[in-house]
Amino acid sequence: MKVSKGTMAEHREQIITAAARRFREGGFDNVSVGDIMKEVGLTHGGFYGHFSSKDELVALACLRAMTETVAKWQKVSDDAPGDRLEALVDFYLSLRHHDRPEAGCLVAALGSELSRQPSAVKEAVTVGQRKAIEFLSRIAPGKTKVLRRKQAILAFAAMVGGMIMARGTSEPQLRQEILDTVAESVPNSVRATS
Amino acid sequence: MKVSKGTMAEHREQIITAAARRFREGGFDNVSVGDIMKEVGLTHGGFYGHFSSKDELVALACLRAMTETVAKWQKVSDDAPGDRLEALVDFYLSLRHHDRPEAGCLVAALGSELSRQPSAVKEAVTVGQRKAIEFLSRIAPGKTKVLRRKQAILAFAAMVGGMIMARGTSEPQLRQEILDTVAESVPNSVRATS
DNA sequence: ATTATCTATAGATCTATAGATAATGC
DNA sequence: ATTATCTATAGATCTATAGATAATGC
């Protein structure tokens, strides 16, 4: 039953990866330690050899998800033929992202649950938020650093809010109107930010 | 033990009111039927004489919360000495709203949990979202109806996202930067929307 | 007589722990 | 010998239901 140290380290990574996906899919409360361990092919009892509590895994999974998201943003903006921020906004507010919260932005998938998480979780998310804002500042069009940071925060807020509103709507027409309107307006708005 | 029909109707209202507050405070999953009934001064067993399921109460509580919020927005904008939308944005992105999710916007308090709720709940929220967007359209500055609606959707998205980001942050300085930046940028952004 | 509420409970689920098992690694 | 994982379980909690109780309202 015992596995090598290398395999155990792999298991740990697999648990964090599975958790990052499953939590975004089902919410922190509706995904149990047992669910995640089963997905990795282990039993729930072994979990506590890897982590001291479910909360510890939640914090690690949040940071993992946010780091992966910013890395994906980097690729999307690098591949953009035209305006990098505009390409990112279209990518973020796509129907594809809407339909796959488990593979997308953690703040959009779990944002309103974060305020009720223990401080270790919020601290991990804060690190991720800073990375996201810093990345967006780099592709924002403003002339000064201060201005680009303001543009980054505004763009992030509008994208997160737009996606959450779209996911909370039962009518496909309103949903698409929200995604399209925000995607279309953010680039103009960013340029107007001072 | 039995009460009059009038009292029973009052109890029903009290249950919905308590639920609307407690759900925004703790999330749908972390507030039990028993918690809500206890707050109203009843026992959990009597709940099913009022509602067929917890989900039914969730839907009613969501609609209640959103309707109350839009009513409050109306008052805030009516009392504004200057620009009505600007006053509303400042009110929404205030530290006071940040600190009291249970008395504020449902989309900011529970937004990312909505996509996982049954369709009856999402339909109730959609009704509320339409009311919110229609209200914001009325105080938006655009020349045409179509333009004002776009401005309303952008402003709502930025406000929701800004509040959720602020509540998910553990650092007070970053939190305040997010609230201030979005509050300051939305009015300019709205004017730039076309 | 009807029915709003209460008491008690079935059935399900979840986190965390304890001790057993069996493979690694000194 | 050490330890990663497994089996089993304690303790807690939640939704929903069933039957009892006692006050309303015909």
Summarize the structure in words:
The structure is a homodimer of 194-residue chains. The longest helix of chain A is centred in the middle third of the chain and has 25 residues, at 54-78. Chain A is elongated. Chain A is an all-alpha fold. Helices cover 76% and strands 0% of the residues of chain A. The mean pLDDT of chain A is 96. In chain A, helix 4 (54-78) packs across helix 5 (84-92) and helix 5 packs antiparallel against helix 10 (172-192). At the A-B interface, helix 7, helix 8, helix 9 and helix 10 of A face helix 7, helix 8, helix 9 and helix 10 of B.
Characteristic terms for this protein:
elongated, mainly alpha, homodimer, 194 residues, 10 helices, DNA-binding
SSE inventory with pairings:
Two copies of one chain form a homodimer.
Chain A: H1 5-26, H2 33-40, H3 47-50, H4 54-78, H5 84-92, H6 95-99, H7 106-114, H8 119-139, H9 145-167, H10 172-192
Helix pairs in contact in A: 1-2, 1-4, 4-5, 4-8, 5-10, 8-9, 9-10
The structure holds a DNA duplex (26 and 26 nucleotides).
Radius of gyration of chain A: 18 Å
State the end-to-end CA separation of chain A.
61 Å
Percent helix range of chain A: over 70%
Name the shape of chain A in a single word.
Answer: elongated
**Which sequence of SSEs, written as H and E, runs from N to C of chain A?**
HHHHHHHHHH
Please give the largest β-sheet of chain A: none
The chain pair forming the largest interface, with residue counts per chain, is:
A-B, 55 and 55 residues
* Strand coverage percent of chain A: under 5%
Tell me the structural class of chain A. mainly alpha
Mean pLDDT of chain A: 96
Please count the helical segments of chain A.
Answer: 10
Oligomer: homodimer
Beta strands of chain A, count: 0
